Amino acid sequence: MAIDHECSCNKNPLVPSLCQVIDVKQETGDVQTYTIQTMDGKKPFSPLPGQLAMVSLLGVGEAMFSITAQGEDYIQCAIKRTGLLTEAFHEMLPGQVIGVRGPYGNSFPVDDIKGKELLFIGGGIGIAPVRSLIRYCLEHREDFGHMDILYGARSKSDICFKEDCLENWSKEPDTNVYITTDISTEDWDGHVGFVPSYLEELGFQPEGKKVILCGPPIMIKLCSESLIKMGFAKEAVITTLEMRMKCGIGKCGRCNIGSKYVCLDGPVFTLAELDELPDEK
Amino acid sequence: MYLAKKDLEKALQTLSQKAVVFAPILETIEDKVSDAKTVEKKFMPYFDGAEVALEGFNTVKPPKDVLFPNVEKMYKYKTGAGAYIMELLPEDSQKIIFGIRPCDMRSIDSMDKVFLTKDYVDSYYAKRRENVTIVAFGCLEPSRTCFCDSMGLDPNQAPTADLMMNVAADSEFTICNDCGTKVLTDDGKYILTPQTEKGKALLEQLKELLSDGGESYQDTKCSLHIVKAENLDEKLSKMFEHPIWEKVTKGCIGCGTCTFVCPTCYCFDIDNENHGAEGCKYRCWDSCMFSDYTRMAGGANPRPTKKERLRNRYLHKLEFFNERYGETLCVGCGRCIESCPAHLDISDFIEKASLVEIDASDYSEANYSEGRM
Ligand SMILES: Cc1cc2nc3c(=O)[nH]c(=O)nc-3n(C[C@H](O)[C@H](O)[C@H](O)COP(=O)(O)OP(=O)(O)OC[C@H]3O[C@@H](n4cnc5c(N)ncnc54)[C@H](O)[C@@H]3O)c2cc1C
Ligand code: SF4
Ligand code: SF4
Ligand code: FES
Description:
The complex is a heterodimer of chains A (281) and B (373). Chain A has 281 residues and is α/β, with parallel strands linked by helices.
């Protein structure tokens, strides 16, 4: 049997490349952002907005993370400490050698949303994938209409990417930023309340708008209901799914929802597409 | 062309000169405590004097691990100073799977689709697959749980094998004392039909043992005939919330046996093993029937109970795989039925699902008509 090695990566897709962490940034009490380069100082690969990287701490384990940003010679992942592996990631210092493979997943439909007004909604660490698209849209600002960014975190200190959320983005042309926290604290004079109710309060108009919605499952569920109530079509709401993953390339069977593999066919789906999948999300 | 049964051993010896030949071989296992002896038929490398048993029932475990081993090293690495990652690919050795049954051959076709198509080629599987030649054997006697013909297969034919082997119609049999199945006498004949270039090359190696003739072969039928709706996959796509699931998944104890004996189950886990600063990443078979298979950080689990897990397994076999790859992933080999300690029966499920009403608001056995035919 002759096997056609028509692999999109031209090499063994399950073996990571050695990379190094060149910068570690404490975002919140339990989130750190890592800037990652190849050993010879290059960009590991050029992902599309919303794509994923399988990051491994050799000898400990590997897990999937959204690539939240990229530059000329780096990619960035923001990792929340939730368990054994992510705890080990949080011990990393600049210079740490890691394994990286990817990019994986389908990415946000940048062509589909061209020329549209955009409403970005993020909750907690869920802002990580959204940020990759916001950055893309800001780099190609003239391709997109008005942008609204709505982000919710537990408290001020839980806000990820503080410079972007609290300073940079609101200075961009034709861009509004709305930040809310679940609880009120002394250092916070902004809006207090959960994302779904703030969303309804802000009352965005659905005409000509696409929504990008990422966050914890409960937030996605409630925001989706609010958006539908506000008149948004399910085709206009784009979200991401999280399932446990091992291979990242649609082989190991781990991340299926119905006949779809989230690692390959996702993680980006519209609400309309999610409706087609069995209710196991 | 045919090969006389008495020359089978010679044929295997000849083939073993150029490749490792995995054949169904009887292994006697002695229990040291009770002295009891059990005989198990397994695919293992042929050796002189091995008791090869092409006839009889299919093996308890499929020869899946020749292509997709239970545990497979993927790369080794070193952490800290002088860190490296080094890919570990299977070595380039030729293998022959000799005497695979049509159901297990069809399973390899499905695994080919998984590992070799859809954007990524799995390097480990590809390397093994390229170096394997497959000789299929048309079943002579199905076991009581065989239902491959209800799943659209033919127990006499494995069209994608490199070489097809069938028992000639005019062969004679004796009955095996141990297992009660039909065994070819020494005068019996196997008809060999090459189906690919690799198959022709094997025949070439065997040519001195072959004789002309041998056309018609023993025509075998499965023992278990079940009702299967023509469009079962479409029907199941509308039955995700059907009350049938509660009922059919009831007895399952989540042991995972069904997935380990199944020739088409391909899920794997990835883990590592460390020795100081060095270590090795490996993959190993996993089972969607285990509760932590889909558990995420913080304990959230999209498939919290056996109902969701077994539903996913059955639907993967009968609906999801069809949607993704255009064929059913259950080949009707009956192994999971034979091995389940709780007597769950996928053939019974297929029949019930084929007969039940999609919109039924409750489900009881009486909802579907007469069971097995
Ligand atoms: C598409 C996708 C994008 C993600 N993006 C990010 C991100 O940008 N930032 C971030 O901090 N986290 C992200 N995650 C979640 C991240 O993969 C998990 O938090 C991480 O695997 C937890 O590992 P742990 O070993 O520390 O937790 P443990 O509880 O020790 O994990 C046990 C096992 O479960 C697996 N697991 C646990 N939680 C998840 C999960 N949510 N998703 C998948 N596998 C899980 C782990 O791989 C591990 O094998 C993403 C997950 C997916 C699937
Ligand atoms: S073998 Fe039977 S009891 Fe065990 S997991 Fe499979 S269906 Fe459940
Ligand atoms: S599901 Fe059961 S009957 Fe079907 S192929 Fe797997 S082991 Fe055989
Ligand atoms: S992670 Fe292996 S199939 Fe998606």
